Structure formats: C-alpha cells, structure tokens
Amino acid sequence: MCGIVGYIGFRKAYPIVINGLQRLEYRGYDSAGIVLANGNAVNLYKTKGKVIDLKKIAEDNITEGNFALGHTRWATHGIPNNENSHPHKSNSGNLVIVHNGIIENYDSLKKELIQRGYTFQSETDTEVLVNLIEEVQSQNNCKLGKAVQLALTNVVGAYAIAVYDISKPNEFIVARLGSPIAIGIGENHEEFFVASDASPFIEFTKDAIYLDDEELAIIRLGREIKIRNINNDTVIEPTIQELKLNLEQIEKGGYDHFMLKEIHEQPHAISDTYRGRLLADKGIIKMGSVDNNITKFLNAKRIIIVACGTSWHAGLVAEYLFEDLARIPVEVEYASEFRYRNPIINKDDIVIAISQSGETADTLAAIKLAKSKGAFVFGVCNVVGSSIARETNSGAYTHAGPEIGVASTKAFTTQITVLTLIALKLGNLKGELSNSMFHSYLHKLNLIPDKIENLLKINAKIEKIAAIYKDAPNCLYLGRGYNFPVALEGALKLKEISYIHAEGYPAAEMKHGPIALIDKSMPVVVIATKKGHYDKVVSNIQEIKSRNGKIIAVVTEGDIIVKDLADHVIEIPETEEAFTPLLTTIPLQLLSYHIAVMRGCNVDQPRNLAKSVTVE
Ligand code: F6R
Predict the structure, then answer these.
(1) CA 309 / ligand 1 centre spacing (Å)
(2) CB within 8 A of 428, min separation 6: which ones?
(3) Which of 352, 356, 406, 592 gets mutated to test ligand 1 (max ligand atoms within 8 A of its CB)?
(4) pLDDT recorded at residue 102
(5) Substitution site in 386, 408, 410 for ligand 1 pocket (most atoms within 8 Å of beta carbon)
(6) Residues 189, 190, 193, 199, Cα dihedral to 10°
(7) Which of 98, 218, 320, 537 is the most buried (most CB within 10 A)?
(8) CB-based contacts of 45-49 (< 8 A; 24+ apart in sequence)
(9) Per residue in 197-253, pLDDT tens?
(10) What is the spatial distance between Cα 532 and Cα 542, in angstroms, rounded to a whole number?
(11) Nearest CA to ligand 1 atom 10
C-alpha cells in the first residue's frame, strides 16, 4: 500500500526522502511523487511508475532544500497516473498533503467543496482532504494543526497523512487512523523524519514515536513534538521507542532479490522465533504471553483463528496442530468474512489473529469485532508495535525480522513456529502429550533450523525443475493433513509472483473436480511425506500418472515408491509429521521464486500487490 516519507532539518532532504521511498517500495505501489522546499522555492514532481522514474524527473530539475515530503501511491480512487499521484496541493497552492488510506465519504465532501468554489485536478479522495483542510482553516482562521484536526473529525475512513504549509517551512502535521505512521526524532529536535515505517530513517536516528489511531502530531523544528487526540482534543504524552532495526536487515545482502534472501534467512529466523522460548534441554516452553493467560488457554472450548492470505494458511496449519496436539477445537476464518458475518463467539473461546505486518485492515477489524463481543484476542505478529500488536489483548511476536519481499516466506514459517510452540505447551499442560512425548517433540523442533539449512542446498536442483515448467499456464498443488495448507500456500506463492494460474487442493479432493484438468501439460506438485496419509497420496499420484500429468513430488528422504512414479522428486529430511510444513514449504517457495525470475517477473514487488494491506 501507499508509502510516506518526509524530512525536515539541516540535511539535504532529497536523498533522504528518495532513498526512503525506495525502502518502502516493498509495500507495493504504482506511482510516486515528491515535494521539495528551499525557502520560498517549492518544487513538486510526480509520475506514474516507480521511484526510479521519479528520480529521473527530479534529478533533471531542482532537488535543493531541507524539507521534502514523498509518497508512493497504490491506486484506490482513480487510475495510476501523474495527476492522481501524491503529493496533492490545495486550491490556494499553500497546503501540500500525502495520504495513505481511504476517505470513504470523499464524494459528499467533494460536492460540498465544489459548491464552495473548489476545483479538482485529480480523481483522488486525498485532494478532497487537502482542500477540506484549507476550507476549515479559512473558515476558522486557525493554525494548520487545528485545521487538520477539525477537518479529520468530518472524515470517515482510514488515513495516515502528512500535511505541509508552504508558508511555514519549519513544521508539518501528521495524523493517523488505521494506517501506520512513525516519526523519527533527531538530536535536540534539529531534524525530524516521518515515514510509514521506520526503515527510511534508521541510519539517522534510533528514537521513534509511533502514532496511535486518532492521534495528530505537530512537528516543529527545535521544539518537542505535540500530540493530541483528534476527537477529544486531549494532549498525549509522546512515547519514544528505541528502534532495534539495523540497516543490514533491510538490505539484500548479496542476494538478487529480497524474497531469495528471506527464504534463506528461515533457519536463522526460526531460531530467533524460539530463542528463549524453546528450552529443549530443560523440557520447557516459556512464553510469557501464554503463561500469563494460561487459565484462559487451558479452559478454551474453542480457538477461532482470523487472518488473511499466507497468514490464513499458517492458521490452517495451526488448526491441525491445536486439534492434534492439544485437542482444542479450532475454526479458521478469513478475517474479511468473519468481520461481516455476525459470528458467534462464546465466553470460553479464544481468538488468535495472525498477521506479518500487523496492519492488515480486515484482520484489525476482525480483532475489534471479537473484542467488542468480549473475546480474549491473542495476536501472532511480526512487526513490533504494529496496530494489531497493540490492539490484541496479548500476543507473541514471531521475531522473523523485516520481511521486504511482498510474497511472505519467513513470515509463514515463523508464524507456524510460534503456533507450534503454543500447541505443544498446551498439549503437555492438558495431559494430551506425555512428558516423554513432549520432550521428544521439543528436541525434534530444535533440529528444524539445521534441517532447513541442509534442505536449502537443493536450490540448484529446484532451479532445473523450474526451467522445465516455467511456461506452464496452470499448476496444481496437492497435499493432505498438515500439508494440505502447504499445498494452498505453494499455489498462492506461484500465482502471486509468476502470474501462473495455480490451485491448491487436499489430495483426495482431486477426484471431485480438478482431475478433469490433468493432461500431459499439467504440472502437479504433490506433497507425499512418509507419515502423512502416505499410501493414500501415493494412490493420488498414480491417478495423476495414468492421466499423463507431470508429477513433482515432495517426499521424505529415502522414499523409493514415489521415486518410481514421479517425474521429479524433492526430498525433505525426516521429522515429526506435525513439523513437516516447516520443511515442505521451502522447496515450494524456491520453485515459485525461480519460475518467476525465469519469466522476468518483478519477484519482490509483484503487480497489483501490496505488502501491507491497510484497506479492506
Ligand atoms: C502472500 C502474502 C499475503 C499476506 C496477507 C496478509 O504472500 O504475503 O497473502 O499474507 O496480505 O498479510 P499480513 O500477514 O501482513 O496480515
């Protein structure tokens, strides 16, 4: 979704904001723009396309000044073109705005403004907002901060905004409802940064404020930041957080793409997920957020999991984990359906919300709904301090580190790791897993990072398989039990980054429809691990073979039966069936990656997709 970067201070603003926009490219966007101010001279450049296109335009012109506000736009209202790109100016030309989110009542606001003589250059809701602010300011003869606050009380929707008055070059106003915004604070308040996340400014300052919903900040050079609640006008004491992020974590580190880097980071990321939690030698799982709410977890009659996309697939794996290991019934819901379905939530239910970004609008709305019905909501998030992390009653971070590639990879496996830890812990405490079984599980889970490290050595082999199937128009993914969600995830990964149509199915469902698609041009990826209903999956493989389908099988090391049947065999190391999704996922991620690269696709920023889906 849209990205915002702003700078005010003593440095040249242009390189900071342009580099910052490039760091936010992972969020997904289709146009970009920047406004620069150097005293009274103001320059505004906007273009459809990428930040690189914006750079060409700006660098042929003037890029001077200690103030800049930049934006990457993911189109909602109006097609991606130069006019609809941000920043937008007000009719007087004095106010400039960048906006992430949607103003739902923009149409009625626009009509009122047109009646008052305002004109519009773009189709965007954002241009309506900046003119509304201007109108409020002239009606009330007030300062910009007050005008933004009053205007926002008339707005329905979601936003993170930064607004700048050209005649007041030392300040800007930022506000948030539903979309994230971080403020970086330089030494002695001599410079400030604003951005959709902290990555654009981590080399300049480690001190940051994350605005909460309904908060507005007035940022003035040389002064303390002032924060107010937009609706009730109370003054809020800023909470300054120390950023733990470093530059290395958000760079490619020698890999061609972030996605490939993040696939390879999984052994390390999973170790980080269970560091201090999985104490295999002591036979303990220590998780403060679960321990502090243990009665609720142990008494839960049902767990409802809400999430979207890949996180929803992690939720499906968790359904198998919680039911199998802890004998707690689980329902997994698309957050977008749950939030509009008037769901039944009982007092002994626990709702678990899973989200990498912690900003997904539907998941956030599902959480708010569940809380309003009295549920205890537990979050599994990657981004520290994100909206979902703050909105949930309690939760566990995945500690995967920044995930920049739009397609989730390490986020998925680390989410599963957190959920596995919880399921094992509850299984043991509920007496469903004896101590000896529990200890054996812990030791095997502890070995997973090393097993992934070894598994990643098959990269070259997968690249060869990818070369054979890169032009396939369709692809089918099949799995059973714990690996059914992995089949769904494998198909999602392929379609989202290579644009090949792919479907995932429980292997046995093939007979009920998809089998009609199978012929010699159809690659079928089948996950056939040793303990996962192996014989049944082997029968499915035979059915595919007898219809001349091309079989790429993911099997347990040492398998001989499937080797004879499949066109290609990818071996994963032996482990507990419950942990196989952490391994079987890896070759499927690599397969999608290589196919997408060979097809010339933009792997890290697939078309039409956004990393953080802050609109519904
Ligand atoms: C797919 C992918 C998306 C996200 C989904 C939810 O690779 O990344 O399907 O999983 O948009 O995002 P989060 O996990 O941030 O809530």
Answers:
(1) 5
(2) 285, 435, 438
(3) 356
(4) 85
(5) 408
(6) -90
(7) 98
(8) 46/82, 46/85, 46/86, 46/87, 47/82, 47/85, 48/80, 48/81, 48/82, 48/85
(9) 999 999 999 999 999 999 999 999 999 999 999 999 999 999 999 988 777 777 887
(10) 17
(11) 310
Given the CA of residue 407, which atom of ligand 1 is nearest to it? 7
Cα–Cα distance, 600 to 498 (Å, whole number): 8
Q: Which residues are catalytic?
A: 2, 611
Give ligand 1 pocket residues (Cβ under 6 A).
Answer: 308-311, 355-357, 360, 363, 407-408, 492, 496, 613
Provide the pLDDT confidence category of residue 574 given band limits of 50, 70 and 90: very high
Q: How confident is the model at residue 475 (pLDDT cuts 50, 70, 90)?
A: very high
Task: Dump the DSSP string for 506-552.
Answer: EGGGGGGTGGGG-STT-EEEEEE-TTSSHHHHHHHHHHHHTTT-EEE
Contacts of 184 (CB under 8 A, 6+ apart): 192, 193, 194, 195, 198, 201, 204, 205, 207, 208
Dihedral sign from CA coordinates of 147, 151, 153, 157: negative
Alpha carbon 469 to its chain centroid, in Å, reads 29
Phi-psi region of 157 (alpha: psi -120 to 50; beta: other; left: phi over 0): left
The highest-confidence range among 22-31, 136-145, 603-612, by mean pLDDT, is 136-145
Q: Model confidence at 109, in pLDDT bands (50, 70, 90)?
A: very high
- Determine the Cα–Cα distance for residues 351 and 248; give it in Å rounded to an integer: 35
Distance of CA 357 to the CA centre of its chain: 4
Residue identified by tokens 């519904």 is 616
Q: Judge whether 462 and 587 are in contact, CB under 8 Å.
A: yes
Write out pLDDT tens, residues 370-414.
Answer: 999 999 999 999 988 888 999 999 999 999 988 999 999 999 999
Contact 352, 303 (CB under 8 A): yes
Question: How far is residue 162 CA from its own chain's centroid?
Answer: 22
Residue 612 neighbours by CB under 8 Å, 6+ apart:
1, 27, 180, 196, 357, 359, 360
Q: How far apart are CA 319 and CA 324, in angstroms?
A: 8
Residue whose token pair is 């012929």 = 519
C-alpha of residue 3 to centroid of ligand 1, in Å? 17
Which atom of ligand 1 lies nearest, measured to the CA of 308? 6
pLDDT in tens, 263-301: 999 999 999 999 899 999 999 999 999 999 999 999 999
- Ligand 1 centre and the CA of 310: distance in Å? 5
Which tokens is 63 given? 């890029």
Query: Which of 613, 614, 615, 616 to mutate for ligand 1's pocket (most ligand atoms within 8 Å of CB)?
Result: 613
pLDDT digits (tens, 9 = 90+) for 521-573: 999 999 999 887 898 899 999 999 999 999 999 999 999 999 999 999 999 99
Q: Ligand 1 centre and the CA of 359: distance in Å? A: 10
Report CA(300)–ligand 1 centroid distance (Å): 27
Question: Which ligand 1 atom sits nearest the alpha carbon of residue 357?
Answer: 15
CA atoms within 13 A on the CB side of 417: 33
Can you say how many angstroms the Cα of residue 255 is from the centroid of all Cα atoms in its chain? Answer: 21
